[in-house]
Task: structure prediction
Amino acid sequence: MMQFMLLFSRQGKLRLQKWYVPLSDKEKKKITRELVQTVLARKPKMCSFLEWRDLKIVYKRYASLYFCCAIEDQDNELITLEIIHRYVELLDKYFGSVCELDIIFNFEKAYFILDEFLLGGEAQETSKKNVLKAIEQADLLQEEAETPRSVLEEIGLT
Amino acid sequence: MSDVVEKTLTALPSLLSLDSQPGTGKLSGTSKLGNLIRNIAELTSKHDEEKLIKKELAAIKEHVSSPNTTLRQMKEIMVRMIYCEMLGYEASFGYIHAIKLAQQGSLLEKRVGYLAVSLFLNESHELLLLLVNTVLKDLQSTNLIEVCMALTVTSQIFPKDMIPAVLPLVEDKLQHSKEIIRRKAVLALYKFYLIAPNQVQHIHDKFRKALCDKDPDVMAASLHIYGQMIKENPEGYKDLTESFVTILKQVVGGKLPVEFNYHSVPAPWLQIQLLRILALLGKDDQSTSELMYDVLDESVRRAEINHNMTYAILFECVKTVYTIYPKSDLLEKAAKCIGKFVLSPKINLKYLGLKALTYVIQQDPNLALQHQMTIIECLDHSDPIVKRETLELLYRITNGQNVTVIVEKMLDFLRQSKDEYTTIDLVGKVAELAEKYPFTDNNEWFIQTMNIVLSVGGDVMQPDIPNNFLRLLAEGFENETEDHQLRLHAVNSYLSLLEKDNVHVPQRFLQVISWVLGEYFFLKAETKPEVVLDKLGRLLDQSFVTSETKGWIIAAITKLSSHTVCPNTVAEVAQKYTTSLDTVLRQHAFELKHLNEDRDLIRRVLPLDASCEDIEVDTSLSFLDGFVADALGRGAAPYKPHHQRQEELSQEKALNYEPYGLSLPVSLSSCSITGRQSPTGLSLSSGLSGNSTEMGPKGGSNSLKLEGVRNVWGKEGYLPQKETTAEGTLQVLPGHEGPGTEESAMENASLQPDLASPTIPEEDQEKQQLASSLFVGLGSHNTLCLMGKSENTSQRFRRKTNKTQESSNASEKFSDSSISSRSTVESLMDNNILENTSSEQETELTTLNQSSNQASEFQDSTTPDGLLNGGEREKQDMSSDPSGQAPSLFTGGDMVILQPSCAAAENEQPPATRPPPSLPTELSQLAHSGVQGLCSNESIAVSACKIYKDDSVVLVVFITNKSTSAIKDIIVRFAPTELKVSESTSHGFPLLEGQNTANCQCSVLMEKPCAQGALVGSIAYQAEPEKSSELQFSLAFALADFIRPLTISTEEYGKLWLAFSNDVKQNLKLLSDAKDPLTATLNALKETLQLHIVDIIGTEGIVACQLLPAIPCLLHCRINTGMLAVWLRSPSPDLPDCLLYQCQKAIQKL
Result:
């Protein structure tokens, strides 16, 4: 089972964090700090896997963004690498050629996609089409709901 | 930093202008969040950022608490709060609003609300309870999206206690018409199963339904639950093997819809999940494994495309093939796969190849030989992770011949590594290897390696490393001269280390140094003790030395001062620390001061080289009897056990003085140093024992590894013809090897034996040399001995572990009595001080029993069963005095190997070396203790052995006639004590021929429960006509000897619990370092005390046992604020009390 997933920039700025195990905020911060440091210190030709404490870390860099997952000992590193890749594919498809800024400004959308793809640390839906369908359905409702509401608000507030 | 800011800033205008375009329209560049993000990006310092966000959070706080804020605004605010939290600023004031948003908002606001909740809170957060109602409502909604959201949040975070409230609703969703709902419901149940398996026990049949779901995604989700359940109990799901095999067959065969393909690999996630489950099911099970051979073969065959995903599947296949019951052609294919990984130019695959090699190397050491060139390359890889994994691999193939090279490589890595976790792990491994092969190179190697371990490992390493090292040094190996050399090397190297000024040595290392110098300074005759004293004295003044270490140093000074007259330094030290604020140091100083005033005493108390001598401890503290009687006489209140006091206190509702109870053991410890011991609790045993040479020739198991290797690999380990081919490849592709070349080289190697090339570049020669030194001793012939780690250990090592176990027992037994609250340094110290008393004791007993060769033995009251007896027998050896008792023949575990008696040789041998009598065959199969001598004189010897039958304890008494003439009218009688001997209390033998052994059996019962009792008896006989003699003996029994598991069901337990009236409650220590402290503690208790664990539910466990013949005792254990609250009930008024005591002791030992 995946323990957590972190997205951070080349400068070490955290862009997304998802924890599948209950940890205190203090521990989360410590782990994040340590991992960001360790991963950023690694050279590009080095291998994508790390042994870190009793966990295995799988990370991959896409443009300026690092995707970093922690998995347990019996988990498969390569498939985790593909999970990262599939997530990037999903983001790419959703945002249309995704860049770091998309994720910075729309991080809640990135979370929604992640939740639809991974649930409780396991891949729940591996079909790209289905994940995006589920997200788009929810988005559609959003737009429907948004239009009348904003009109009302404008009337009410201004 | 600046360049991203620049990029961001330059990108912003274009972003804004693109705002209206589809796709990027989702960028809310003009929102408040956008502003916040942009403002933060403009800042240059962390301090400014902090200020800005504090301001932002203050504004948000005001907003959220205002009644005018609409839900729509709240949604926007919530997103900003998530952002602030991600940057590391707490916004806990908003958590409740996140819950409110999830509860009251319309769909889109609800979505953000749920997201915020799942990001802000974790399972144990109290606010989460407020979410339950919302989830309940949404689960019942007719809107699919609402149901989805509720299920999503449920499978992420949900309070454990509230599971029953939503469970029926989630269960219902398993029948939902939409697969997405069914899938999420299954995952929610998976989450419930993980956090509270008992809650979902009743719906296992519904899991089966999910497994049969027509939608592959729902089925795949159910595999998570099955994976977990099978991991916990593989036996329970063997019947599903065929179903899993069928599913995998269909997946591999491409029977699933194309949309489940991932880069044209059919449903890889599903495949891997199934492979993992098959591995769990087929492990150690031939018939189940046979079901899956075909599909595994197909999986390996089909995974051909060169894509990461295929490799992921292959890797899982390899793991499964090597986990299940082996099949040779599958293993061969898997080995080929590993080759693909290892030889891949891609670093990720190479790394995993090394991992796979590490995994399978114990089963198939030849694989390491095949890939030795790659391994050598990886050893010098620029990526430390790859290097580290290579070392792990080498660690697994270490043997007596390559250990020096491998350890050297590990030490190289250690010196560069900065990661604490790696250091701890690697230091432990080096220490393990060094201890396993201490004499590989020469004695110096061991000491030097350990020096590096101790200085690099410093204070982060596992504390048992220095302890084991000292134990090894003190107990020695089998050869006196080697031991002597080893200790001398240690002393030399430490002295030269202290020579340097301002050396900064880790505390643990200093402790080791001071102990060794204190113990073995005399070995270095040319250095005067005064010089050593001086060095230690100077160390004491160093500011970096902690007070714990100072304790060790003063202990060493005390030992040194017993053999030198150097009043100045010693007196100074003593004087200085008698005023120390640290009580332990002060105590040491006072001891030193007093001992120094009595030269006679100090020599007796601290004899040279006596760290391994055994010490008897009077656990009953009977030397205090007089003191107690006096006190009682003066009208003091009688002592009440702890729990009784607690109960009385709670009845009286008085103040609880619990914390003050701790001071008790400390005050006792000082008494025990001066007090005399009484014979209570001591028993006698003659050291009937075998001979140490029976242990097998030293290093015999090592020599095995050489055999057969030579034929293929030669002494160089690496054949020249192969070297040339491999080297050719290397020249073409420096740093990487072409896939397959290595393999073909391998094949060619044996065919072209005379292709040796003279043009091998130096660098490669080095590599080959390294290869030959690393892979020496590996080969097909020693597959067996490499199969498992334990089989790999040498005879010598095995002996060592036993000793280790023994001495830890001994030292713990020791600390039980008086100094449990003090650290190792004190116990080492006290060890020596007490020694004197114990030897005195010994003399006393010896006279009492009119025999010269008896070693007294402290019979521990918790000796529970056969398991510990190995250690105990060993201890007997340790206590053997110089009168020539040889160590016993003993291999460890609960089986004592007994030597068949050899009458002819016995005449010449001193009586003590006589092999112990052997048990009747029908009894030797049962768990039993070692044979323990009870009493003996020149003509007769009595020894006994306890047999732990399921329904009784049988004592077998052996009577050996040591003389050559017959002995008549032997009668063994047992006196009535708290222990009852059933059947008859006397056994007679009319005649026992010379050099013969007779035995009689009787079963022993503990009539009234007590922690320990002695069986007292006598033997009368006539060695010469008309002259009868009599010998007394006694044998200690512990309560644990009579405890047996009581196998009952939970319901029966419940009934019995209510029926019993006598109860005792107490808090015990919990094995808190274990993953599951409750289970670990209970299992440990079960191991030592023969209890039956009826059930473990969450943080509570119920345990049952009985005192023979049939007095039940029930234990109810619960984790309570880091302690194990134990509640014992029994029909017997004394049993709970005594059992509790045994439990306490058992836990202390762990």
Q: What stands out?
A: Chain A touches chain B through 68 residues (CB under 8 Å). Residues 2-148 of chain A form a domain with the Beta-Lactamase fold (CATH 3.30.450.60).
